[in-house]
Records
---
Amino acid sequence: MDIGLAMQAMRDPAGVPAHPVLFQILMVFTWIFHIIFVNLTLGAAGLAIYSFQRRHSHNHWERLSIATTKVAKVGVSLLIVLGVAPLLFTQVIYDPQWYVSNVLSARWAIAFIFTLIIAYCAWFIFYFNNHTGAKSFIVGYAGVALVLFCLDGLIMHVLSYQALLPEQWLAWYAPNGIVDSSGSTLHAILWPRYLFVMSLSVPAIGLFLLAYAEYFSQRADYTPEYLNFTNNLGRSLAFIGFSIALFPLLIWQFMHPAGTGLITNPMGWLLAVSLMAMSMWIRNMPPKVHGYVPLLGGLGVLTLLAIWREIVRIQYLKPFGYSIADYTVNLDLPSTLLFFSTLLGVGGLVGGFYLTLLYRSARVQGPYTAEPAVSKLGNWAIIVLAMWIATFFTYGIVIWVRNSFLV
Ligand code: HEM
């Protein structure tokens, strides 16, 4: 059987509603936001546990543990929500690979959801009980949650990686010619790739702490000693984290299959250089640098990673003649227009309003009164949301009436 032809046949016969490269760009772009919150959450969860264990040595640790527990709590919900968009785009242009990979490890794909639910519940138990004078045993819940979060990351990695190895699908589906439809095996793990992406959680929480110290510097209830403590810790974690992450990345670099040209591809090396540059810069950064600036560097590293993952995917699938460029296009302008206006209107304006509100409100101690600009933004957010709901339903009803009664 020609696996390349099989992949073509498994494509959605309806095609895609706009040029496939558009979906590719959106997939890479939206994945950046997913992985930002994966790394932030795992870093915050790890630090929350570590600080909890050190809480008797100084009250800074206790305060930090409570704060990072909250960061991880919010982070999980965001990483889930922000995982949906790249998931949808992957399913649009890489549907044969993604579905085969999921079916081959179906039990794990389903277990992913349940383990994520259990992990999140365990984290909430830790969150509810992590306050001054907390009992020691509650850290067990946090430990279970963190292990399960890492397992979920591993499942995500396996699903991504198996999708790149079509030449092995048949052997996994029917080992020695006997069909195994249990879906109970994780068939392929590339440990350096998994460990590299996960290890970025250490610098991520480091950069977050630098921004945290800057953000709360205006508030009287955050003492300079505490903010100095978080700033120093953030700097150490970011420096150490970027340096450590270089090792699994370099191992991954040399594990790319011969003939794909990935070992000599400049993009992978640019990623390695960006890690080195970040770690050196953080180490020597003058104290007067604004605490948000390093975040931009972190964003740059994750953007390179997102692009690099896509280059890796393209090169792995090329020998099988699979290219998204020849995906059938059935242009559907109204739905494409609806999508982009949703992204800009609801994502940009309504999302922008929430972000501005959150940002401004926590900078003041006690109740916050919205400035006129923020309040105006809020009004516009409501108007846009109402327009979006009206358009969405009108569009659906028109199509339903046309297809059901007029054709
Ligand atoms: C604690 C939970 C999660 C963790 C730790 C996690 C971690 C990861 C990691 C490490 C990768 C990169 C894998 C690789 O490149 O080898 C990844 C990719 C991805 N994750 Fe997550 N993830 C989680 C939850 C989710 C959820 C809930 C969704 C969807 C709603 C999601 C959607 C995706 C998608 C679409 C990809 C890219 C797949 C591809 O490119 O083929 N993730 N995730």
Note: The CA atoms of residues 235 and 285 lie 9 Å apart.
---
Amino acid sequence: MAIQPPFLHSAGGAETVTGSCHYVDLGDTRLLVDCGAFQGGRTLEARNREPFPFDPMQLDAMLLTHAHLDHVGRTPHLIASGFDGPIYCAPGSDAIAEVILRDAAKIAWEDYERALRRARRAGREADVEPPPFDERDVEQVLAALRPVPYDEPFTVGNVTVTLHPAGHVVGSAWIDLDTPAGRIVFSGDLGNRESLLHPTPDRPGPARAVVCEGTYGNRTHRSREATIAEFRDVLARAAESGGRVLIPSFALERTQAVLYEIHHLQLDGEIPGIPVFLDSPMASKMTAVYRQHAHAFRDEVRELNGNGGDPFTPPHFHATVSADESRALNDLDEPAIIIAGSGMMTGGRILHHLKHHMWKPDTQLVVVGYQARGSLGRAIVDGAKHVRIYGDDIAIRGTVHTIGGLSAHADRDDLDHWLAETGDARVYLVHGEVDVLDTYAQHLKQAGRNAHVIPDGRPITL
Ligand SMILES: [Zn+2]
């Protein structure tokens, strides 16, 4: 019998950055790689409720590259739609998925109840739809997760699957599928070779096809050395000013990279040993997962782990749990570094720190992540002199610093390096804005590669 060519249908993550969800049909075996949520605006988020363009009941298994919401967020919907197979992932992704999905379900239901109350007052409650999943669906996802160690092949139908470290976040994997039609590789999200925490990911060998992310296929990041030097200078100057140092940060990966670097710089005496507060219960949970996986980090991080006990706990470290403890930080009478979410300052505890301190000239705001257009963080980085926080007019008199280079994503050179040994494999680009993916596809073609951008919502033969 002739071998059927593999067929791929992307139901998200194609021609866009979020919603990663790739259905692979190999004839006898049907797999789903990731099942993430669309994020960033109503039109896109409405797609989280749509039926899948494949039959979830016919899937043999799902493979999860990592537990960011844009890769795991629609798994409860997948299960509510009839999927009842295993979800394979690398160790760590199971624990992170639990934190991310419980948080997403909680926020979705709180938003729904708020919208419903408002709609009731307007007599339009029929217009408000409940979230596509609830806590029970989340429980079922957690029960379906099957962590498998890196580099240990396992079989699903007639496919041999191997997960390899991807260096993006704890538990991130690129996936090698050894199929009757040849080898097919999925990159998932790939890490930055200049990551503070993760070693450089291994590279795949010759393949039939590589489905590769291209988030930053049009740019190059700064070096680790330059990033650390910049971070050190900003923190040293900030500590000198005697005021509050505020670091808005994403709970997963960025917070741990920041904690590790502060610890490292304080131990080396490069910055003063002022107290460090982690004011985010979610980031504290993620940090606990990172501690359990410290053996997998770069040598420098592991050494600190061996000598100091814990890379993510600087000498004067406090994690605040309750809202009261968080508020009490407002009255603190000494210089301190406060790390709090959300990363783009669109919600969370960072807002009350900004409200209480940004009007003071000795406050230092250290921005360590991307700020999307429309976010409060973007307005501040762009130089707003006044902003509104919780209805109050707040003057921005503190100093704003931005640190580049802390990206958890591969840049163009990292992607080239990772793809270098895949021979004449066809490269299919996903997970990027269309113009960025087009630019990277052009770059690959100029290097003699057979590169394509996967179309959104249209099946293709790999
Ligand atoms: Zn990711």
Note: The CA atoms of residues 98 and 142 lie 7 Å apart.
---
Amino acid sequence: MKKPILVGTIVIVAILIGISAIFVQNNDDAKINDIENPDSYSEKIAITTTTNVITDLVENIGGDHVSVTGLMGPGIDPHLYRPSASDVKSLQNADIIFYNGLDLEGKMGDIFVKIGREGTSVLAVSENIPPESLLILDANGNFDPHIWWDVELWTEAAKVVATGLKEYDPNNSENYEKNLLEYLNQLDSLNSNNLNKINSIPSEQRVLVTAHDAFQYFGHTYGFEELAIQGWSTDSEAGIKEIQNLADEISKRKIKALFVETSISPATIEALKAAVQDKGHDIVIGGELFSDAIGEKGTAEGTYIGAFTHNIDTIVKALK
Ligand SMILES: [Zn+2]
């Protein structure tokens, strides 16, 4: 009985030596490649994100350890976004993909499933938010995806990003945890600053009229009623009847201002403004709000905190 075991052991050892030799060879090849072409080598984790709100979040938590490719820049509407061939490549080459989920990226669901099956970590930043904290929007039980306009829900999104990074790169866990705590502190200050500013708007004037329903969480947190021409997704045409009905309500209630969104054509809000004025109520466009995308990178509004502050200041100025 011993002899066959010994032969078996020798065979296994021989195979293992063979495999290690192949690994050493491959490693050496990789190193030679890196020296010859330093650009091909990066220790950073390659991350692909969808909206620039998520890009900003991942960059804050990942810091120097990540290289983030965001598919959607400023002014891009995620509800209607269809990925290009180069987007699909970027998704396939990513170490981790972070997306919003809750059907925000309505045309991309199949790609996330496919790439997830191929072994890449594909994480929805909304995945840990308990259903009782989400707003239900319609009879089909769809949840509102615009979670980033509630700072507390965005805190949960930040934790998902930190956990995803720690699992992928445990050696830098402490660093991700430190970045997370620093960022959560900043979010906390943002929320208290927002609350202080909003207090200057009398509660009966807290009505936000926008093109699409992106601010339900915002309204829920800060006591605003939201009146939108379109529903929660931009994937439907706003009809003349909807605009007329809304114009009636706005003139009856003497609402002071309407708001344009950066990721949606201003045409529907301009049509609404004209319809309200036809009814004899003088209304203004109170400014432009960031809804489904934040601003240009490198500007104050190119961060989530900067864009949120811009929105609050614009709303307070128009409605107080
Ligand atoms: Zn939206």
Note: The first strand starts at residue 45 and ends at 49.
